[in-house]
Design brief:
mainly alpha; 2 domains; two-stranded antiparallel ribbon; 25 helices; 5 strands
Length: 699
Amino acid sequence: MALSGMADVEGRPESAGAGTDVTPDRADHAAAVDRDPASGPTRTLRRAATHLLARQAEAGWWKFDLESNTTMDAEDLLLREYLGIRTAELTEASARFIRSRQLADGSWPQYHGGDGDLSVTVESYIGLRLAGDDPADEHMSRAAAWVRERGGIPATRVFTRIWLALFGWWRWEDLPVLPPELMLLPRRVPLNIYSFSSWARQTVVALTVVSTFRPVRPAPFALDELHPAVAERSEPAAARRRTRSWSRPRAFGWREAFVAADAMLHRYHARPFWPLRRHAIRVAEQWIIARQEADGCFGGIQPPAVYSIIALRLLGYDLDHPVISATLRALEDYSVELPDGARMVEASQSPVWDTALAVNALVEAGPAAGIEPDDPALVHAVDWLLGQEIRHRRGDWAVNHPDLPAGGWAFEFENDTYPDTDDTAEVLLALRHVRHPAARDVAAATARGVTWLFGLQSSDGGWGAYDSDNTGTIHYMIPFADFGALTDPPSADVTAHVVELLAEVGLADDPRTRRGVDWLLRAQESDGSWFGRWGVNYVYGTAAVLPALRAAELPATHPAIRSGVDWLLDHQNADGGWGEDLRSYDDPARWAGRGESTASQTAWAMLGLLAGEQRPAVARALERAARWLAQHQRPDGTWDEDQFTGTGFPGDFYLNYQGYRLLWPVQALGRYVRELSASSPARSAAVAAIPGPRAVDRS
């Protein structure tokens, strides 16, 4: 099974819940906090730090499970059915997980607590049909009825209907065309492959091959029960198209033009110019092969991997070909075996991100938790991070930066083609915070990383995650574009992390850093918050930006910082925590900064408040937040958190980073305890007497 089998200490992808009630098994701890509120934050911190230290792998990294939705599991089964390698044992293990996520109304959601999603439900239903679940069974009939009431298969997203077309459940003729000739467009032409985001680009290239061959495998069963009584062939998934200011600006006339172009491409598909088509297919094949990573995966994420396998099979690659077999092994490593025998498929893996966050959190915990900057666990983690630096491969980002040396860090164990600025910034912060014996090596890696980050700055001063100036808008008008973000424009959270790093390494006054600060100030919402691209949502964005602005030497009294702090204060829940529902991406007026309190979002808010002016209202809010974390801490030192607080594609795809419930509270409490100690020397001496992690056997 996958390395991610480390998952939770109990190995669970979900836990008992993170509500506001204090559960009985926490009662003794909560009572102790109430009796001794002065030592509460330190005790909470030390319990959490002990748990986090115990989770480190022998090689030095941390890696927590990454849950998304059951399309990952259903598509894994569909891929294996297509390839003829699906086994009964694996199918039942995946089906067990799929069944566990079904809602009472028969549907499946995108995320915990969300409403049913049509495409997720259709794919999950098919996954259970592959496992042998009878359509007449009560849970299946409820699902089918739910699907029919919402338009059935014709109303699903394009990606779902591509999977259906592979088995003849949908006609290829009724899908948008992705011609391989797209590979031949020069960079100056709109919609060339490098104008797409890195994640979309990898998927699109593989799908140009699949779309060309239009394969159909014999369907193992019919899906008549998923079609409405009168099938309407209106624009599929039109109901899911939502105008969002963050990524989908409307351009009058473009959508109609692309619909007409798609009709022409359907005609061209029937009679292509074969010399050009064959050349385009060869270019696509070579492009795909060149981007396979050392672990066999493509791009470190599920969609490019599965579509690349299908594309290469269509091009004649056997299942035992080294390229195909390596990818299948990588996909198996992306699965997690749960204690009940269920099998969960991860969309990606996050060891570099998790390790950097763990190091930064434990450094913040510091002496209050018995952890010094040269702690062996931290030094070991930095050794591993240094080995993950990408020094000898220039990925797709180099297309627009031909003179920029290789550099950066990726999110996954292996993804040298696609390092990202967010991971790189967090890793460089970790390197800076640890007292490592190889100081020169750390300094050299830091210098290389900073050079690479400056090179990836966009022309407007901000930073995207994987590319610079990847800001196209017409991509969202093509018929294919109904599944999420297709471009990678600068975001507040990523820009903030980079600015914070640059300021910490002494470059706060560098003109490029100041341009990043100016970008952040321009990106502030009118209510004082910042949008969160990669975390949910305005709480995450605001909490990322405020420390960055302070690191960049803006005073705590700066109007932008004060208004951001005020926004956080206004959105603290009555129980003392913070939470934000994922619906804030679609309905910010109602849900921005509102939702059930969670450990990760409470910690984010604390980090934001600690960057502001320490006035009485802030001190009271921080004390209430620390108390919430103390009262809801589990006996083993971590927290329950079923809610998804990570973002893949806003509005379309979300993630439960199962390390967030631990990593961020350790960082926030560490910073909070340090501030309390600095403001009260007497208290600092008192809390120093409390036993810390070093008194506990971490083995």
